[in-house]
Amino acid sequence: MSRKFFSYSMLIFIILVCSYLFLHSSFFNVDKLYVTGLEKVSREEITSLSGLCKGVNIFEINSNLCSRSIEIHPMIKSAKIVRHLPRKIEVQVVERNVWAVIPYHNSFLCVDEDGICIDKLSSFPAADCPVVITMDALPGRVNLGQAVQAAGVKMAKKVWDALSVKSRPQVSDIHFINKTEEIVIYTTNGTEVKFGSDERLADKATFVDQVIEIENDMDKKGIDVLQYVDLRFRGQPVVKTAP
After folding, report:
1. Would you list the domain boundaries of the chain?
2. Strands, sheet with 76-84, edge to edge from the N-terminal-most edge strand
């Protein structure tokens, strides 16, 4: 019995050693490395950040460490290392896209929907005009890759998504009040819509659509435009026309 046990143990040990040596042999050395999902960032930047290179054993790659290193780049939202056995490595990346612009001193901060600063511009971007967000308080200094009042940006995104596609072009900017964490919408016709919190989001968004329709109708007739509309409280909104 002991001889059989010893024989089986030795066999298992030999199999494990052979498996280990095979898995760490040159047969699994990476000979192809490619990156998918890129539009704005160069392949060279990603591979440099990842630390990946050809010739390394595919099983010796720390995929979590490589992914985190790539995600340091301000334009990269997420990165994933995928092994394609026996010798190929794919780096799957998701880039950040500019969703909004935040006026900041004499420049403009380009942020994605999470509030991450992707770029700083000296003038307002002309192409693909993004949403404009203003705030009462901003950090004294903003670096690329830094979150800029993420809570405010995310709330503005929720409100923006709730608005109809027809109404969005007539929104001048979305203002976030830091102290009360409330939203104020300004229309291109100058109406102040006191949106408040993101409670009753769908109902408030419907009211905003109605406000813009009323604005357009009053503007066509040449009569007084709206001064502000208060949606912060339940029931019918409070409406004030310009004197």
Report:
1. 2-95, 100-241
2. 32-36, 88-95, 76-84
pLDDT tens, residue by residue, 179-227 = 999 999 999 888 899 999 999 999 999 999 998 888 888 777 777 677 8
Whether the model pTM is above 0.85: no
Whether the CB-CB separation of 169 and 192 falls below 8 Å is answered with: no
Q: Are 217 and 226 in contact (CB under 8 A)?
A: no
Q: What are 104-147's pLDDT values in tens digits? A: 988 999 999 999 999 999 888 866 667 999 999 898 899 989 99
The secondary structure of 194-242 as a DSSP string is: EEESSTTHHHHHHHHHHHHHHHHHHHHHT-PPEEEEE-SSSSSPEEEE-
Architecture of domain 2-95: Roll (3.10)
- The whole-number pLDDT of residue 19 equals 65
Kindly calculate the radius of gyration of the chain based on its CA atoms and give it in whole angstroms: 28
Beta bridge partners of 82: 90
Q: How far is CA 133 from the centre of its chain?
A: 15
Q: How many CB atoms lie within 10 A of CB 141?
A: 6
Strands 88-95 and 32-36: parallel
Q: Which fold has domain 100-241?
A: Rossmann fold (3.40.50)
